[in-house]
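hiii, so i know i said id send this last week but things got crazy w the move. better late than never?? heres the sequnce for the chain we talked about at the cafe, plus the structure i predicted for it. fair warning i was half asleep when i ran it
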Amino acid sequence: MLLAATEYVRPASLEEALAALGSRAGARVLAGGQTLINVLKHRAASVELLVDVSRLTELRFIEVAPDGSARIGAATTYAELERSTQLRAAAPVIGEVAAGTVDRQVRARGTIGGNACFADPASNYPPLLVALGASMEIAGPDGGRSVPAGEFFLGLYRTALGPGELLRAIALPPLDGAGVGYRSLQLAADSWALARAVAWVRLGAAKPRTIEAARVVLGCVAGAPVRATATEWLLAGGPADADAVSAAAAAAGEGLDPPSDVHASGSYRREMAIVMAKRALLDAIGGAA
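okay and structure toks below
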């Protein structure tokens, strides 16, 4: 199906992009277009004006500071994330997730900002960004602001972006020896996930090793990423062993009511979220310094 008629602009600067977004209530940002274009083709949504930011250098960069913190421009492609040696040293999981995203054509066009802003419950990056403690840098008509990733994703296809605003960059704090685990259950290698879990774990220095702090975030089980706070509470200060992790991961299913569809029932998704949480935690512990 062809796109419905719409206006299109390719601004030369972030300032021009913001002006274009503010000119129409129905203006929308176009970055990679891997999802948006399909949505428009199927008439699931309509726009008055597409503002193409894919070539703006102000939105397409990777910066890594000496302390290991990083900033990633929202229009940075999966392929660029995958190839970045700097990012591989600071936050390797970002590039690893990009490398496993569908196929080469999508990785060449799709962007980390687009993935985040579309806020599909099955999107790769939202639960990861929440687990990493990322901040979402937003540009808008009233200037810039920063929103914690945990407050950016509001629900099904909803984010904290307001009228005329766009995501400018994603800021990542340094890992500082913390380990990260990322696990997904998929029907096939190139399919959407049925359940996803991301774990961030910092271990204490004394031996035997204990869990100093942990963040566990679930995806594909609700409209927005879900913090498994009960699991985090059970892990804090406890031993970094498989038995403790298994007991804590079981609490990740408390209060979850995932949707059912043709691929899986809600109860199956809930049980698989627990399994993914356990595996992600064990990976994170194994990767912690």
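btw The chain has three domains: 7-52, 57-172, 179-287. thought thatd interest u
miss u guys!!
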